[in-house]
Design a protein that fits this description.
The protein is mainly α and 333 residues long. The chain has one domain (2-325). It contains 13 helices and two strands, in the order H-E-E-H-H-H-H-H-H-H-H-H-H-H-H. The protein has helices spanning 2-24, 50-62, 67-85, 90-111, 119-143, 149-168, 172-188, 202-219, 223-230, 234-249, 262-267, 274-297, 300-325, and strands spanning 31-32, 44-45. The chain has a two-stranded antiparallel ribbon with strand order 1-2. The longest helix is centred in the C-terminal third of the chain and has 26 residues, at 300-325. The radius of gyration is 19 Å and the shape is globular.
Length: 333
Amino acid sequence: MKMIFRFIFCFLVSLICSIIFAKFGSQWGFIDKPSDRSSHRIPIPRGGGIGILLVVLIGANWWDVDLSVWIPACFVSLVSFLGDYRERPIRIRLAAQMGAAAIFCGIMILKKETYGASAWIFISLVIFGIGFITATANYFNFMDGINGIAGVSGLIAFAGLGIYGLADGQNAALVSLAFGVAAACLGFLPLNFPKARVFMGDIGSVLLGFLFASLVIAFSWGIDDFIFLASFLFPFYADEISTLIVRLKDHDRITLAHRRHIYQILANQAGLSHACVTLIYGIFQITVIFLIWFARKEGLFYLISFPLALSALYFWWSIRIRRRWEIRRSGAF
């Protein structure tokens, strides 16, 4: 019963913070002004994701979460919060993310009893972890472009991690934290979905991506665990990677804002409502989690084959969407 009350508290903290920033965010300078690369038409306050950060801080104390997990994530979130107020150079944000990821990965990989492994294996694992966490943090941020999509995907992904952690007997503190973050995502949604009165901002989206990737690494004891858990955020990875490939092919400047993600094309050129697109991605995400859970029981071959086949199917679908709806760029993207 005590645990349930704590999750309700996490929900309320996020909800109250969202309400406060919806009302006062603009006055405090946290405002998202629309541009030709935005998917909204009026200025909207941002920074509502501060409630998710507070939940991580409070939950870390409640559940005695290891410092190496929550301090790097919260540090990155605070740097992002400064960016919500005033734009910061990309190199500063990336340096903060990669530095925090390096600290987490170094400590976590050592805790997984890799002392007997060679230095090269340890270094390789740390480098891979830094890349995975940094990429996921930014992917989650880039995908936070329409009403509800970040909150719904965060709710599903962290609830999935929590359910898996319970079933697999993972660290109880991290399992509780996953459920607490899921509750915080749920608390944010009433102010962001289906109508947005406040945006999550980088403080929330970068935190969710960073923490999700960190928990995937923390819960993984082999390549099978990693593939399985990373698939909980499959729609975001598929959309971002397919879009990145297209932008590189078209010689886009990767650092520039754009509207070339599939979810953006569906919400803008195709004319689907934000709520419809968000629900499509949410249903897709839940379906993938269920299917990958069954594939895992069949062995490593099926666990690897399923995401590969699904990726091929997604890329084929994304090509069809782009051919039908994406306007050739003349400065519009």
